[in-house]
Structures are given as C-alpha cells and as structure tokens.
Specification:
Glutaredoxin, single chain, 8 strands, alpha/beta, six-stranded mixed β-sheet
Length: 167
C-alpha cells in the first residue's frame, strides 16, 4: 500500500510540474516574420535575430514614455550586448523619419533603429497602436514577454539573464 501512495504522490508531482511548465510557456509564440528597414537603408529580418536574445521596442519620438525609457533601454543594451543580446528600436509609421534620425543621432543610440514607414511591421507584431510596446524574443525566435508601457527594468534584466543562459 505504501508503494502505491508513493506512486500516486510521484504522479501528482510530475503532473503539477508539467502543468506549471504549460502555464508558464502558454504565452510563448513565434515572432512574426518581418523585414525591418534600418536607418542606413539596410534590412534585417526576424530570421536574422535567431540565436540572440532580442528586445524589439516599438516607439515614437512624440511619446514621452518612450523618450523617458530610452536611457534604460540603452543601458540594458550596453549591459548585455557582449553576451548575445540585440536591441531593435522600431519607430512608428506616423513618426517623421527626420525626427527619428535626429533623435537617434542626438541621443547616440548604440543599437539598430528601424522606421516602419508603412505600418506593416507594427501590424504583423499584433497591430501595435500604443507606444512604447516592447517584446523580448528568445534565441529560438519566440516572443516570451511583452510590455505595454515602460518595462520593469530589474525584472526585464532577470529575464534577459535567464534567456541568455539557455542553450
């Protein structure tokens, strides 16, 4: 009888662990296939991000929260860039390109900046309307977390560290 109780208890522990894993990963899904047009005219695709942990930030120069969070995004990039971390800032279609260029140059943004001229990238990523909207993409190209508004940066750093440690 004791063996049966141990087997039942063991089965419950396994079921609980599997259930927890399913719940924790239920919001994980593939990042949409997109082509980002960078300020220098070059292009980068979602596929190019594979193998890196990537922060994709939809923002606008007219968004006060976006402007306020940008130093934290720069600090996050600087902290993790040497460990396989990438940042891609995607300016919204309504943001005048000259404003985006000026902001990028005056703030010396060290990461890639794209302009979503047509709105197609924002649409593909969930029809983004609110800025800032930030996605964290793992090495397998899966969106593991999204934020509307400024992220909790200490929490974000813990997530990035965990994702960078994954094989």
């Amino acid at each position: 009888m004791k063996m049966k109780n141990w087997l039942v208890a063991g089965a419950l522990v396994v079921a609980a662990a599997v259930g927890t894993a399913v719940v924790l990963n239920s919001n994980v899904h593939q990042a949409p296939q997109s082509t980002f047009v960078l300020l220098d005219g070059s292009q980068q695709t979602t596929q190019d991000l594979r193998g890196k942990v990537t922060l994709v930030n939809f923002w606008a120069t007219s968004c006060t929260t976006c402007v306020a969070e940008m130093p934290d995004i720069v600090a996050t990039y600087d902290k993790y860039k040497g460990r396989g971390f990438e940042t891609l800032a995607v300016a919204m279609s309504y943001d005048p390109p000259s404003y985006v260029v000026n902001f990028t140059e005056s703030r010396k943004l060290p990461f890639k900046v794209a302009i979503d001229n047509t709105g197609a990238v924002a649409k593909a990523w969930g029809d983004i309307k609110l800025t800032p909207t930030t996605f964290i993409v793992n090495k397998r190209g899966e969106i593991v977390k999204s934020y509307v508004g400024a992220p909790d940066f200490p929490e974000l750093h813990r997530l990035i560290e965990r994702l960078l440690a994954e094989a």
